[in-house]
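dumping this here so i dont lose it
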């Protein structure tokens, strides 16, 4: 999905070959994929049940998503990403683990949240290791800015959570300052990775390179 006119894209499109096994999984499990096209989602119908909803933005190759979904079967997990390769991998992991609480959406997370999910319908939004846009002139492209936190706040239930993790220190500082200053949120965790969040493949590369991860969790005020 392309950015609309005047909208700053917060992600890079990365081209890559789609393996035969992943392509086959995408074809076979197509009913688990939501097209991010602005059409409102009937979430209970999508999952076949009414349960608290977690939206994970940028699920990568799906290791952490699948692990957290397996550890938390009472909640539904909708993973949204622009990269179909990773979504296919996640669907394979969910199938292998018999995870009935995982669905995927391909496209822009802002469109999904703004146009396709109801206000107050989300239990948690996760943003793990978004593109850091490390150059100063590109910082405006970072996903977690005030308009994004406003949008998330409008979709979270009272007491719902926004969990952001990054290994880029300036981005962590930006997120921390933003959420502390935002009147809709109460910061409940900041610092080292909480035990319930697995180490992602991307995070491990950063740790190997000497970059520590930093997690910020904020709760929506009643």
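and the seq i came up w/
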């Amino acid at each position: 999905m392309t950015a609309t006119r005047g909208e700053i894209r917060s992600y890079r499109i990365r081209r890559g070959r789609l393996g035969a096994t992943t392509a086959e999984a995408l074809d076979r499990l197509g009913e688990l994929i939501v097209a991010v096209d602005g059409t409102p989602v009937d979430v209970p119908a999508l999952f076949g049940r009414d349960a608290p909803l977690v939206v994970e933005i940028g699920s990568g190759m799906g290791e952490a998503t699948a692990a957290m979904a397996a550890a938390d079967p009472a909640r539904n997990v909708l993973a949204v990403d622009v990269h179909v390769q990773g979504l296919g991998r996640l669907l394979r992991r969910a199938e292998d683990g018999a995870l009935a609480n995982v669905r995927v959406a391909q496209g822009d997370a802002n469109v999904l949240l703004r146009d396709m999910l109801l206000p107050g319908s989300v239990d948690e939004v996760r943003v793990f290791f978004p593109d850091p846009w490390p150059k100063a002139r590109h910082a405006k492209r970072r996903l977690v800015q005030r308009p994004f936190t406003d949008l998330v706040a409008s979709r979270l239930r009272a007491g719902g959570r926004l969990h952001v993790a990054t290994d880029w220190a300036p981005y962590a500082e930006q997120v921390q300052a933003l959420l502390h200053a935002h009147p809709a949120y109460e910061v409940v965790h900041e610092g080292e990775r909480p035990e319930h969040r697995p180490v992602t493949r991307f995070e491990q590369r950063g740790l190997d390179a000497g970059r520590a991860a930093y997690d910020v969790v904020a709760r929506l005020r009643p």
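The chain has one domain: 20-220.
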